[in-house]
Amino acid sequence: MIESAFSEYFGKSSREAYGIALFELAAKDERIVALTSDVPESVRFSKFRDSWPERFFDFGIAEQNMMSAAAGLARSGKLPYVSVYAIFASLRAIEQARTDIAYPGLPVKIIASHSGISLGPGGPTHHSIEDIAVYRSIANMTIAVPADGVETAEIIRASHSLPGPLYVRLSREAEPPVYQSEGIFTFGKSRQVRGGGDITIIACGAPVGRALNAADQLINQGIQVRLIDMATIKPLDKAAIIDAAKQTGLILTVEEHNIIGGLGSAVAEVIAEAGIHAKMLRLGIPDEFTLAAPYQDLIAHYRLDEVGITEAVKALLARYT
Amino acid sequence: MTTKYSLDKLEHLCLDHREHIIRLAQKHEFGIHLGGSLSLTEILISLYFRVAHNDPNNPNWPDRDRIVLSKGHGNVGLLTTLAMRGYFTLDRFVNFNQLENFYSMHADAHVPGVEHSAGSLGHGLSVSIGMALAARLDKKNWRVYCILGDGEIMEGSVWEAFMSAGHFKLNNLIAIIDRNKLTQENYTYNVMDLEPLASKGIAFGWQVFEVNGHNLTDLHTAFAAAQPDKPKMIIAHTLKGRGVPSHEDQIKSHFAHLSPEQAKAALAIITQERARLEKV
Fold this sequence. Notes:
The complex is a heterodimer. By secondary structure, chain A is an alpha/beta fold. Chain A folds into 2 domains: 9-169, Rossmann fold (3-Layer(aba) Sandwich); 191-320, 3-Layer(aba) Sandwich (Rossmann fold). Chain A contains 12 helices and 12 strands. Chain A has helices at 14-28, 46-51, 63-75, 86-92, 94-102, 131-136, 149-159, 206-218, 238-248, 263-274, 295-301, 306-320; strands spanning 32-36, 56-58, 79-83, 109-112, 142-144, 166-169, 191-194, 199-203, 225-229, 232-234, 250-258, 279-285. In chain A, the strands form 2 sheets. Chain A has a 7-stranded mixed β-sheet. A 5-stranded mixed β-sheet of chain A has the order 7-9-8-11-12, with helices on both faces. In chain A, helix 1 (14-28) runs parallel beside helix 7, helix 3 packs parallel to helix 5 and helix 8 (206-218) packs across helix 12 (306-320). The radius of gyration of chain A is 19 Å and the shape is globular. Chain B has 10 helices and 5 strands; from the N terminus they run αααβααβαβααβαβα. The radius of gyration of chain B is 18 Å and the shape is globular. By secondary structure, chain B is an alpha/beta fold. Chain B starts with 6 loop residues before the first helix and ends with a helix. Chain B has a 5-stranded parallel β-sheet with strand order 1-2-3-5-4, sandwiched between helices. The longest helix of chain B is centred in the first third of the chain and has 21 residues, at 7-27. The chains are: A alpha/beta, B alpha/beta. The interface between A and B is medium-sized, with 29 and 30 residues.
């Protein structure tokens, strides 16, 4: 958080911010091309498409073809940004992403929208709660989950000079704002959003803002929460996790993802292998298929809202202190 | 940088290509992808020695034509061609499938001259489309040649690619389908019928040629034909295991080791063919 100018990305959803940030980037570098599968409006490519139609490619409803074609474009000197719903980027076209893009380490940026349960009524066919788990197990991949619009813009700017492939998961809905102004994003470096010594919340994506609001309330009850925005899932900021585990002893992870294979799993692996002692709770989507309902209702249902996060913090503290 | 070898010279090179593969199949008891490499001989030799612009001394020359082997299991055929063309020496991959190198069962782009790693079927044509779009965007004249297996086109992703190449009117893309009519375990018409393939190609917006894939003149007529505002598809009718009497057009040719007798019979044919060419 830098205190200078108020960001133009403040309050915008990550996908909204992506459209603007990519447009700014593409204006400066004509190697950038944009690929989608029939959803240019949904992934906020319209301005890009209208400004540089020759650099914009809509492959129709054919994600596998699109993903491999991105590899071919990258092999020929282009910097492709591939955007489609996260469910299709992570499952329908995953072998293409793995074998054609990740194996050769090509500079293809897969910026997936509508991740998690953010397309609420879309239901399980359109919810993406496995994408982190899938991409995390693919070598050469970098994975980022911005907390809000401001951080999205930072990540998109940073993506330009990232030499290899990148997966970014964006939300359809506006995330609660976390950052007031823009800074420089470094892949692999987490950010401590607020300090505290009783318990650490490690979150990514929209849950960061909700956890921040919850933490601000919990202070009234005498609970000091440290909040870490783990915007890069891979490479993971192990040092920050170990420090938090050592210093607060209690770790709550929050993510809009299946609790298996996501941020919580990644954090647990670090703590287990570090040989340190910390108590943990993973808050996320339980290992079941999601329901179809308005987004805010789903967030409440899965206890991922401020109330749910507050309860989880108290439960952890009650259990172990 | 085009070599533009004569068709007569290519005949000799094709025999050299087959001989090397046959000897490799005898040497490697584990077996090699024999059949699908021998069905590619004339296609690969034509592309690398006459049709495509390439430079073995500069494999990453930006203006080279791209040759993508989508049926990555034809890698022995590809590596043999690349070695003959001068990208590396033939002995470089005689001991292939070893830890210390990338000369292995499936095409790997760590090897000089290999444009894209392949082995999982149904990827190469889509990658080729990306390359062709990049060439068009940069207003470059280089072309993309993609070699597919016929069994491979059972993959749905290939039809996505057929559709988009037609839609984008990629007149710098040429797909060659090695129509040997055999998959790993059966004949294509038993597994999943592909016909009428040429009609399907036309319906997807391609210019389609059907040729004898072992006849260099036929192949060159198709390669040389003017390409209108659409991608070109060359359906090359071939025989899996071409030139090995014990394995030609047989299921067992897919992955095979040749006994000394089997190899000897195949090499005898090559000797006869060489003698025939000398007389002409």
